[in-house]
Write a structure and sequence with these properties.
SH3 type barrels; 42% strand; alpha+beta
């Protein structure tokens, strides 16, 4: 089973290598934008992240809803 997590792009770290810094739950890390179309993935965009790669761009509402659901699952497990 695969899980992709929504994250918001906060910085383009290396434009040529297509590396961006994303934030998920207050944690920031670098990911690759190489699986997106050229020109996709700007600062402020939300993307679905799987194993260090942005898989697709998603809208803010969908990203926030997914993050809320993931957050509620954490509360359920505890």
């Amino acid at each position: 089973m695969c899980l992709a997590i929504p994250g918001r792009i906060v910085e383009i770290v290396d434009e040529q290598a297509r590396i961006a810094k994303v934030e998920v739950g207050g944690v920031r890390r670098n990911i690759s934008l190489s699986l997106l179309e050229v020109g996709e993935g700007a600062v402020g965009d939300y993307v679905l992240i799987h194993v260090g790669f942005a898989m697709t761009k998603i809208d803010e509402r969908a990203a926030e809803e997914t993050l809320r659901l993931l957050d509620s699952m954490e509360d359920f497990v505890e």
